[in-house]
Design brief:
By secondary structure, the chain is α/β, with parallel strands linked by helices. The protein is built from 13 helices and 20 strands. Helix 9 runs parallel beside helix 11 and helix 10 (191-199) packs antiparallel against helix 11 (204-227).
Length: 410
């Protein structure tokens, strides 16, 4: 009786007190923002005051290293799964799968919207599986049912939606009542990538795109601050951009009539055939053809690229080793008239590297990181959201050092 009376008196004296806060109230919030094609040096080169101030007040990296190929879907999907493309299966924006006897293209709803093409466990799937709500205003793969799961709230990709509307919706999601409020939100902006492709990374149009997007970032940060929620914000990019000098042919279509070809042009071309002897013969011919590209059998690709262990990778992989777009003459594929491109080896071309900025109540301040691979982001976000990560991740816990509850890296 005395214990019961004491409990009642304590409740009257402090009705909001409890030994353990409700789990969802205590769980941090994470916003993951992608600025597609925002090269690691753009903020310094063109000036991005909101982004730089954000990084100076929190954490920023000298660069973030994309996976190979440094293309939009493989790189974004590596960030969100913690896996190299050879392990999550999205080995380029377009590729062939011999086991399915069919090709994938991210822009084709029949394949890009089919969750069976996507391996790994995206962060929003991990969150939803463990009872944490997620939302996405765009991120490659976020509108696809992967393992039968989508974010609790998501928008099918529509590039025509104004940036202001994207910002407004994300702020509104964070203003939802606590029981239905997402704790993980992703969003995506493509402006800088589009300008870089059309005009090149050194063009005034790209400089203007950087300035415009920096203004959007400023508006977003102001809106987040007004919510008064403990939101940890990460602003990063999937890759950088390289000035393209010319288009280079690897040969005529008649030479490759026995192969499936995907992609057919760009910074990389892959050839698929079950004839190993023929593959070796053609690869040797291509190796001696032009110094502006390198040719590998799949088992020979440079080990630091982590680009061997998947049958979706071409039996022959042709990689540009100069700032050129590759093509096959007479193939019917018309190379895009672009001044800038990506997809190149990020170890050979520093221009492929992207950005990483972070700030939030659970993160240290005034930290500058050396360049790191983007597969390391996954474990950090999972740790912040108190999620148990899946086994077999390629990334490590090296970014835990920026957490307030962790010691500095030695």
């Amino acid at each position: 009786m005395r214990r019961w009376l004491l409990a009642v008196l304590l409740f009257i004296a402090c009705p909001g007190c409890s030994r353990t806060p409700p789990p969802e109230t205590a769980r941090p919030y994470v916003l993951l923002v992608s600025l597609d094609g925002f090269r690691h040096d753009y903020a310094d080169l063109y000036g991005a005051p909101n982004l730089k101030r954000f990084g100076d007040q929190g954490v920023h990296a000298k660069a973030m290293i994309p996976v190979y190929p440094s293309a939009t879907f493989p790189s974004h999907y590596s960030i969100i799964t913690g896996l190299y493309p050879e392990h999550h299966g999205i080995v380029n924006n377009a590729f062939f799968d011999p086991q399915r006897n069919g090709g994938y293209r991210y822009s084709d709803p029949a394949t890009g919207g089919d969750g069976s093409w996507y391996g790994g466990t995206p962060l929003w799937v991990l969150a939803e599986q463990q009872g944490v709500r997620a939302a996405s205003f765009y991120w490659p793969g976020s509108d696809v049912a992967i393992h039968g799961v989508r974010p609790n709230r998501f928008r099918p990709y529509d590039e025509s939606v104004p940036n202001a509307d994207r910002v407004r919706q994300v702020i509104e999601w964070f203003q939802l009542p606590e029981p239905v409020r997402p704790h993980l939100v992703t969003m995506y902006f493509s402006d800088v990538d589009t300008a870089g492709h059309l005009y090149g990374p050194s063009a005034p149009e790209t400089e203007q795109a950087v300035a415009n997007l920096d203004t959007v970032v400023g508006t977003l940060l102001q809106g987040l601050e007004a919510t008064r929620l403990p939101i940890n914000v990460f602003i990063l990019s999937d890759h950088g951009m390289l000035e393209v000098q010319q288009s280079v042919s690897i040969g005529r279509a008649s030479e490759f009539k026995d192969f499936v070809i995907a992609p057919q042009e760009g910074s990389q071309i892959m050839l698929y055939s079950a004839d190993e002897k023929h593959n070796a013969e053609v690869a040797e011919l291509l190796k001696a053809r032009d110094t502006r590209f390198a040719t590998y059998l799949r088992r020979e690709t440079p080990p630091q690229l982590h680009y061997r262990d998947n049958w979706r990778i071409g039996d022959i992989v042709v990689m540009a080793t100069s700032p050129v777009n590759l093509r096959i003459d007479g193939s019917g594929a018309v190379p895009a008239p672009e001044r800038g491109n990506h997809g190149y080896d990020p170890h050979q071309f520093p221009e492929m590297r992207g950005i990483f900025y972070a700030r939030g109540p659970d993160l240290k301040r005034g930290i500058t990181l050396d360049a790191f691979e983007n597969v390391n982001v996954y474990r950090l976000i999972a740790r912040l959201l108190r999620l148990k990560p899946p086994a077999g991740l390629d990334g490590t816990d090296k970014l835990f050092s920026i957490l307030k509850d962790q010691p500095a890296a030695k």
